Amino acid sequence: MLSLPLLSEEIRHCQLCLPKLPNGVRPVLQVNHQAKFLIAGQAPGRRVHASGIPFDDPSGDRLRSWLGVTSQQFYNPELFAIVPMGFCYPGRGKSGDLPPRPECAITWRAKLLAQLPNIQTTLVIGKYAHDYHFGNKNQTVTELVRD
Questions:
Q1: At 127, is the secondary structure helix, strand, or coil?
Q2: What whole-number distance in Å separates Cα of residue 11 and Cα of residue 14?
């Protein structure tokens, strides 16, 4: 098993989806074996793809506000691990961003989560993350949260 630093470096150099990503690859994640809180999101958006910083957009401002944390706290990898279902921006579809590429979760997710032993709380954001973490129960996000 690779150490977390080697695994995250391998992910950052991943080219697995290159032929399927219209804007190229730029894996975005934040991990540290000491992290206590896991943000399990969907995939980076266009702005995050450009900056390489997770949640570096209005959704991140909103998320940090809801969590009641500062940017300094949020971007401290010893506190927060940020592991989206897809590490690269999937591109734009007819009604918004495309879904995360499935290759990321299949290839990397279990290996990565196994290297985060101190996670105490996981915030699962979005349908694809919900389906992965809770199983596809054909429920809407609202129904899943209510349950």
A1: helix
A2: 5
Write the CA distances from 116 to 30, 35, 122, integer angstroms.
11, 7, 11
Of all residues in the chain, what percent are helix, strand and coil, respectively (each to 5)?
A: 40, 10, 50
Are 33 and 118 in contact by the 8 Å Cβ rule? The answer is yes
Q: Tell me what pLDDT residue 89 has.
A: 96
Residue 29 belongs to domain spanning: 4-146
Q: What is the C-alpha separation between 52 and 26, in angstroms, rounded?
A: 7
Predicted TM-score (pTM) of this structure: 0.92
121-124 and 37-40 beta bridge pairing: parallel
Report how many domains make up the chain. 1
Residue 136 clears pLDDT 80, i.e. is over it: no
pLDDT tens digit sequence for 57-80: 999 999 999 999 999 999 999 999
Report whether 56 contacts 47 (CB < 8 A).
yes
13: domain CATH number is 3.40.470.10
